Amino acid sequence: MDEYQQTIRALSDRIVVAQTPIRVLDAVKWDDNIRQAFINGKGKEPPAVDRAYYQSRPLGFDSSALKAEFQSIERDITRQLGQFNPVGQIMRRMCREYRMVVRMLEARGTEDFGLISQELYGAASDAFHAGDPTLADLGLMLSDYLNNIDGRGDLKDEPKNLTAKQAVDILQRRLNTVFGEAEGTIRVFESDGIVADAAAGADYIKVRADAMFNSRDVRALEVHEGLVHVGTTLNGLNQPICTFLAKGPPSSTVTQEGLAILMEVIAFASYPSRLRKLTNRTRAIHMVEQGADFMQVYEFFRGQGFEIGQSYSNASRVFRGSVPNGLPFTKDLSYLKGFIMVYNYIQLAVKKGKLEQIPLLFCGKTTLEDMRTLRQLVEEGLVEPPKYLPEQFRDLNALSAWMCFSNFLNHLSLDRIEADYANIL
């Protein structure tokens, strides 16, 4: 490693160390006693969460000192690499994002929390491009499509007859074939301490101990949490110089969640009720941006057919870090927003013949705006190409063919097609 590479590695390592104590989801979650009190009250009163609630739950780090540390790292990046160095620009942006994350967590329970969340993750009212529909429009459109197929008996969800232990065993066996059993690269285990059905860490997937699954759920977890989230983390940890690629600031969350949803689709691991879950999250966030409170969002989910406990869980995701009549935590927009952005990126990469850039999405916790720079860094030997790649991205033949057709189909008018096909459909 030459002096230039050592400088980058040292600065990168400082970012990795500095961000270690930041645990966004732990800092914003509502405790089980809040949930239990709501359920015991039959869902009649909003959860008792206010600014004081969060103040009673310390962040676990000195926020002022941490912001100062990221500021210091950012200054040193400019001092040692210059203002226009490509890898330096990525690292400086990460420092700024992490400072903003700390500010957001400091503001838990206030309006600023929601405003900073929108800066980091976006808002449902954001357009994808000038003149294009918004995320809220996408959510409503998908809901309409899903409503049209809801009544079909052949698309009903399979019964959830797999316990967490059975799901763990299946996932461990399948992922061993991808990541290597002998190396013990990835662990799958049960956990009591998570809100979601499953969550991925650096080299593990934890499954909620009391959750039940069906075979489709397990396949989706294999693809989403395993092949994408754990895969990109391991590829980031495999970086000898740009170690920051193992860690994901909010801008990478959008790209990574979008990549995971895209993988579900192209691996045929997605299904209507899964899409409904993502769509409902987007719609709920938009409702809150329009002034809805917790109880209104809770009733929205009740109207979707969810029981009290699940409706509470779904609504509380939107208000994590906030208060029951506050602004939303918009991280859950990352799924649909990221899917559209990553899909468009791959589509354009195929159109322009830049296929070599597509697998680089997996070289760590990447962000779309950095992809051209990452290709340059790979060519310079500063970034390693991804070691772990899903089959669909190892061989780009099928994906390229699909995107070629997709590029053409984008030019057709669906309204005109619907009119022309009226007599045959």
TrEMBL record:
Q: Which GO terms describe its biological process?
A: proteolysis; regulation of nitric oxide metabolic process
Q: Which UniProt keywords apply?
A: Hydrolase, Metalloprotease, Protease
Gene Ontology molecular-function annotations: metallopeptidase activity
Look up the record and name the cofactor or cofactors this protein needs. Answer: Zn(2+)
Q: Tell me the superkingdom of the source.
A: Bacteria
| Cross-referenced InterPro entries | CHP02421_QEGLA (IPR012656), MATCAP (IPR012548)
Q: Please name one Pfam family that this protein belongs to.
A: MATCAP
Q: Which NCBIfam families match?
A: QEGLA (TIGR02421)
What PANTHER family does the database record attribute to this sequence?
Answer: CHROMOSOME UNDETERMINED SCAFFOLD_67, WHOLE GENOME SHOTGUN SEQUENCE (PTHR31817:SF0), PTHR31817
Q: What is this protein called?
A: Flavohemoglobin expression-modulating QEGLA motif protein
